[in-house]
Amino acid sequence: MSNAVSVRIDGDVQKALLTLEASGLSRSEAIRKSILDAAAALRRKEALRAEVATLEADEEDVNEMQEVAFLMESLRASG
């Protein structure tokens, strides 16, 4: 079952919608695709945040990154 939604759009959104429609999408398809794409981008962002948090919590990995950074800095300083 589908639900109808009413949205007010400004000039920038109107231009973007026209661009999507010019690609061959219907207005409804363009809006649905945009919502799905935005939600997917948010999920990817959250997954990346979770991955970073996991890496930051890995003490062994953090120590190794610090050792590599120190080594790189010492090589730069001696060069």
Strand tally is 0
Give the terminus-to-terminus CA distance. 67 Å
**Spans where pLDDT lies below 50 across 5 or more residues:** none
Number of domains: 1
Global shape: elongated
| Major beta-sheet overview | none
Tally of contiguous helical segments: 3
Estimated radius of gyration: 23 Å
What's the SSE pattern?
HHH
How much helicity do the residues have? over 70%
What integer is the average pLDDT? 94
Strand fraction band? under 5%
What structural class is derived from the secondary structure elements?
mainly alpha
What brief labels describe this structure?
79 residues, mainly alpha, 3 helices, elongated
Structural commentary:
This protein is mainly α and 79 residues long. It has one domain (11-78). It is built from 3 helices and no strands. The protein has helices at residues 11-22, 27-57, 59-78. The model has no long low-confidence stretch (mean pLDDT 94).
Describe the structure in brief.
The protein has helices at 11-22, 27-57, 59-78. With 79 residues, it is mainly α. The chain has one domain (11-78).
What is the topology?
Elements: H1 11-22, H2 27-57, H3 59-78
